[in-house]
């Protein structure tokens, strides 16, 4: 296009071209323009005329000629006319610029917020203007060159998802996204359903992940209701938990049935024969888009698609081709919501601002990666070829890498565009906290501001480092601009109320926040000694003498009280990971193996096989029962992998079957050596346990097997993964990390032996069985009961402190809600007294003088 524009200029002679350089002087920043002019604009016999303003009003003035001139030392700029700030994050940087601009009182048309590239600041700019009330309560008027991708428009995004879902047979990810959008008009699909019906996208996401649905309407119809209604018994240890889970799953199954009914209706609505022309596809897409709010830009693109029939051949157009064309057309389109000049503040990129002047300039994004622009060579037309074409045709062809000349010229143009004030800012870190370096051009700013290119001195004398702490940030924002959003005013009021309850009336506005919200902000962002009610201290939840939790729940509490709070108290479900087509979830495999062993051992027990056990007979009968019950136990997995994983599943199935057969042979041979037995299968047991010091708990558990041999009792628990030895570690029990085995030991009055039996390909030899017969020393037993008393005390008082960081924190499902990396919270926890005993549990171990808390306290004192 540069060459075309140049041809037009030459045909329109005479034309006066204004160039941003002084032909009589030396200006490194203007060399790029000078070289371009000498090559393409000025003939050899022509001389550029210098035009000087008799009273230049540019703030930078003659200093522009000194940019990038290593020998130049200009006069420093007036200190009160330029500010330099560094921020963390684009949102904070833009908020400051917008508030300052509006608060300045200058004619909005004389204000410009300028960046080398605005695309990095789009969402931040929109949010910053939204937060400031304009005329009649609306947003402030602004005009700019900011463009946003058409795909970012919510309706357009939903439209492409809808087309993808229908055209590609309901792939899991897009289908969940479609079920989650509030803009879909499902009533047009459901017909007789209530007008207010809308699917629960989050629940569908969980169910479809567990079901391993990859796509296909048949899979949704077959697998989703079954998975939603499936009761996972592997982690249910009481009859009450089982009953509650059954009720929840019945409701979930009904909801899932409504969802698949909606998907089937969507398919039925558009199941007509797929068109083979561009216009046919466009008409079909229009009918689909009736389910979403109207969007003019999409209709225009569909008109363009329909017109392709006029210029294309007669070959049929597939649905994938049509969808790909539309997606590409959307990706190539942008929205310019502020491009029409409505007045107000100018928000421009460096290219659009060339030749314009302003009273106030807010130059943002002065950091590496934003300015100067990073050149990237075109893989199809590199700079070497571009230079050859330029030399042969005599037409300019822009260099993609360049030598930085254009960026130097743009810096001079940007600095020269302001007459009164310049506010320069950059990010020291992005919104995620990743460090960002200031622009290399900051050295030239030091030359213009201080008279010497000394960035260290510039930082020391002129740069203001804006705090990221919300209290300091809001206080500075309010004092500098006099403008705070009601939400910000509430937060600042909370931070400012040291030692007192914040006044809800302070900073009140249209968005009133509750007293509790203010108290939370005040409490959580302060460094103080000792925790607050917002640090996992929710208050008493009943008498500790009456509290009842399952064994697994107590183990969760010991490992991390905060995780226990999220999962067991708030009932926040963990979102399962996305399964690949070649993956079977370990929990599904474990559930199936447990079910299989339950069926096999129940049948053996009911037929009296353990009354007079004979090893060969037991093993032979168990083998037949395994074959009989295998399909029943593994039906859920078999259904899920039926279409896309059948060959690989058969291989894995044979490996697991071999492992289970090996386990049965070993286990039944060992049981037959014990003589006549009475076995209870899948037994629920509750028992009151006196922990001493007046503390009594009522834990419950479900035993895979409870074996009675005369007066001797054995509790057996199957494990399909994990190291068995760690589960019977005395030290881990005392720390509260492994509590299932000792609580099982305490639940039965006879204090039974607890056996952990490894079932699966990963278990062989001695490592396939671990046995706990009790504590070798009284102090170890006392240490365990003390640990349980500490945990009971946490529950009774409603205390859920943060535990010391561990490797599991990195993959914890609740890490987004945890403040393990929040310095003020860690400071308060370090000074806590209510959870000090719990924190000390980590120091316990099985060695003498380390099993009880008073041992650790004495050690700390010494």
From TrEMBL:
This is Exodeoxyribonuclease V subunit gamma. Pfam families: PDDEXK_1. One of its GO terms (biological process) is DNA repair. GO terms for molecular function: ATP binding; DNA binding; exonuclease activity; helicase activity. Keywords: ATP-binding, DNA damage, DNA repair, DNA-binding, Exonuclease, Helicase, Hydrolase, Nuclease, Nucleotide-binding. Residues 548-819 form the PD-(D/E)XK endonuclease-like domain. Transmembrane segments: none annotated. Gene3D superfamilies: 3.90.320.10, P-loop containing nucleotide triphosphate hydrolases.
């Amino acid at each position: 296009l540069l060459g075309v524009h140049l041809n037009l200029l030459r045909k329109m002679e005479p034309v006066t071209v204004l160039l941003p350089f002084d032909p009589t002087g030396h200006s490194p920043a203007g060399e790029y323009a000078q070289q371009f002019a000498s090559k393409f604009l000025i003939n050899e016999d022509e001389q550029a005329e210098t035009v000087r303003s008799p009273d230049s009003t540019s703030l930078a003035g003659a200093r522009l000629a000194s940019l990038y001139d290593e020998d130049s030392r200009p006069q420093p700029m007036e200190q009160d006319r330029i500010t330099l700030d560094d921020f963390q994050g684009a949102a904070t940087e833009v908020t400051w610029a917008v508030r300052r601009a509006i608060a300045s009182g200058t004619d909005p048309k004389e204000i410009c917020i300028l960046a080398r590239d605005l695309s990095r600041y789009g969402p931040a700019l929109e949010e910053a203007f939204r937060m400031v009330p304009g005329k009649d309560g609306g947003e402030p008027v602004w005009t700019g060159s900011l463009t946003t991708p058409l795909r970012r428009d919510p309706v357009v995004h939903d439209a492409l998802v809808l087309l993808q879902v229908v055209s590609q047979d309901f792939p899991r990810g897009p289908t969940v996204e479609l079920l989650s959008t509030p803009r879909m008009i499902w009533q047009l699909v459901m017909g007789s359903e209530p007008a207010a019906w809308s699917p629960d996208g989050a629940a569908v996401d969980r169910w479809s992940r567990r079901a391993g649905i990859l796509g296909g309407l048949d899979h949704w119809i077959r697998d989703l209701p079954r998975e939603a209604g499936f009761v996972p018994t592997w982690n249910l240890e009481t009859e009450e938990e089982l009953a509650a889970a059954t009720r929840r799953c019945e409701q979930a199954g009904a909801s899932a049935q409504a969802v698949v009914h909606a998907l089937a209706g969507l398919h039925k609505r558009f199941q007509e024969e797929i068109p083979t022309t561009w216009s046919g596809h466009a008409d079909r897409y229009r009918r689909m888009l009736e389910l979403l709010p109207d969007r003019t830009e999409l209709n225009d693109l569909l008109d363009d698609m329909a017109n392709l029939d006029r210029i294309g051949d007669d070959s049929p157009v597939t649905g994938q081709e049509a969808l790909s064309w539309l997606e590409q057309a959307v990706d190539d389109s942008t929205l310019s919501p502020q491009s029409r000049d409505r007045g107000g503040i100018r928000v421009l990129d460096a290219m659009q601002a060339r030749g314009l002047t302003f009273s106030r300039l807010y130059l943002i994004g002065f950091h590496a990666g934003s300015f100067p622009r990073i050149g990237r060579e075109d893989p199809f037309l590199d700079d070497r070829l571009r230079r050859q074409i330029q030399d042969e045709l005599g037409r300019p062809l822009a260099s993609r890498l360049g030598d930085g000349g254009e960026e130097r010229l743009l810096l001079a143009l940007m600095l020269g565009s302001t007459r009164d004030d310049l506010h320069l800012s950059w990010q020291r870190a992005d919104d995620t906290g990743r460090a960002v370096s200031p622009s290399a051009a900051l050295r030239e700013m030091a030359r213009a501001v201080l008279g010497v290119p000394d960035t260290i001195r510039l930082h020391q004398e002129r740069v203001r480092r804006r705090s990221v702490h919300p209290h300091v940030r809001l206080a500075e924002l309010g004092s500098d601009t006099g403008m705070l959003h009601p939400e910000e005013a509430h937060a600042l009021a909370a931070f400012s109320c040291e030692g007192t309850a914040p006044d809800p009336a302070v900073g009140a506005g249209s968005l009133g926040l509750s007293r509790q919200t203010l108290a939370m902000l005040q409490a959580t962002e302060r460094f103080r000694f000792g925790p607050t009610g917002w640090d996992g201290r929710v208050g008493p939840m009943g008498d500790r003498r009456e509290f009842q939790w399952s064994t697994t729940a107590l183990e969760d509490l010991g490992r991390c009280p905060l995780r226990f709070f999220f999962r067991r108290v708030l009932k926040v479900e963990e979102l399962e990971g996305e399964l690949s087509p070649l993956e079977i979830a370990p929990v599904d495999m474990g559930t199936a193996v447990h079910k299989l062993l339950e069926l096999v051992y129940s049948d053996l027990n009911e037929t009296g096989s353990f009354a007079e056990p004979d090893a060969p007979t037991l093993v032979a009968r168990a083998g037949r029962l395994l074959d009989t019950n295998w399909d029943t136990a593994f039906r859920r997995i078999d259904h899920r992998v039926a279409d896309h994983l059948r060959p690989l599943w058969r291989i894995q199935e044979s490996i697991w079957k071999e492992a289970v057969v090996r386990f049965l042979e070993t286990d039944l041979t060992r049981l037959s050596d014990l003589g006549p037995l009475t076995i209870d299968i899948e037994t629920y047991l509750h028992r009151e346990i006196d922990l001493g010091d007046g503390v009594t708990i009522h834990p419950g558990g479900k035993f895979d097997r409870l074996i009675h041999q005369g007066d001797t009792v054995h509790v057996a628990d199957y494990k399909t993964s994990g190291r068995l030895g760690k589960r019977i570690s005395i030290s881990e029990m005392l720390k509260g990390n492994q509590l299932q085995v000792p609580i099982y030991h305490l639940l039965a009055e006879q204090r039974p032996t607890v056996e952990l039996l490894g079932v699966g390909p990963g278990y062989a030899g001695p490592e396939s069985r671990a046995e706990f017969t009790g504590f070798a020393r009284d102090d170890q037993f006392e240490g365990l009961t003390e640990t349980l008393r500490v945990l009971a005390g946490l529950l009774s008082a409603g205390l859920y402190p943060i535990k010391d960081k561990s490797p599991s924190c990195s993959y914890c499902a609740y890490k987004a809600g945890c403040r393990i990396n929040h310095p003020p919270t860690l400071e308060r926890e370090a000074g806590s007294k209510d959870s000090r005993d719990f924190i000390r549990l980590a120091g316990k171990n099985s060695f003498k003088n380390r099993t009880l808390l008073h041992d650790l306290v004495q050690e700390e004192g010494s």
